[in-house]
Amino acid sequence: MTAAERGAPAAGGPPLAGVTVVALEQAVAAPFATRNLADHGARVIKVERVDGGDFARAYDSGVRGGLGTHFAWLNRSKESVALDLKRDEGRAILAELVAGADVFLQNLAPGSAARLGFGADELRARDPRLIVVDMSGYGARGPYRDKRAYDMLVQAEAGLISVTGTPETPVKAGSPLADIAAGMYAFSGTLAALVRRGTTGEGASIEITMFDAVAEWMGQAMYTTLYTGSPPPRTRLSHPVIAPYDAYPTADGVDVVIGVQNDRGWAALAAGVLDRPDLVTDPEYATNQARVRNRAKVDAIVAGVTSRTGREELLRRLDEAGVPNASLNDARGLIAHPQLAERGRWREVGSPAGGIRALLPPITFADAEPRMDPVPALGEHTDAVLRELGRDDAAIEALRAAGAVG
What we know:
single chain, 406 residues, alpha/beta, six-stranded parallel beta sheet, three-stranded antiparallel beta sheet, 18 helices
């Protein structure tokens, strides 16, 4: 009997309560997927190496006490079990954990899980209701199967870097978007599989690749290239097919971002902020395609007004006119953002470094609080989980002495 069969979530409780996930994971993409599952009530048992654990623990020591920033972000509300999967005893324990799980998710190198005895076909032959999620950079087949795949490398290979940056210099996205994209597809794919299993009783074998995820996000650029023959140019903050759409200076020296999506928005900007109603019907500016052709003139007209206006005054006028706009914040601005404070989006979670601040997950249920449990220390839950599997103290000590668990 699976964890989900043992108990459905209570009305108003976390939607994934009763679901158990065993994750053989490291780095960013897979931990991001399972943290989202944990946020909504799933029990996530994170299996780590005995010799240092998930290597994201040591990417940096940016959180006080030496805890890595990536690890703190991605691993709250999980249980850490340290196993040596090179040993028979370690693999036997993992097999027991998977036997009691609803979902097994892993992001080892392609083929590694199967060589350890945890391939999707083998696992689902034993338990057809199991949902197996295999994550990798490029997938289990094809010429890039064994190619190293870190976030920046996949951003480059899938073309994302080619459309990001200045005309002179391509740049990668500042956040690990390839990892995040793959993690979100793994999360949503797992949810879809759980829904289908609830209807049909069948589990699933799911493959998620970072490359496929970013390729999907490149859709507009691909269609532009497919049907015009030319890839979209890099346009700094602006948009290759929309104008005005950029950051503009203010009298305070702080830029404000203005994004006009259509001709109605242009009319609001021209008449309500620029005091130039004549631009609404001027054939050089009246349509978006005309404005894109005359982007330099458009930007000069807009900047000529914004540069003489203070930031707060400009934001007020833009809002009153109904023109889309934003402050060009950095991470400090995000942390201090009044929208997060007013809506109570901050929480404190425990960690080996003590209490740390964390944002609530983006999916907000009106009748259920997300889990915001501590970030685990390496192997913190090994003994407790082994006791659940029927090991007594003597057996646990013997496993630890043999190096099979940590």
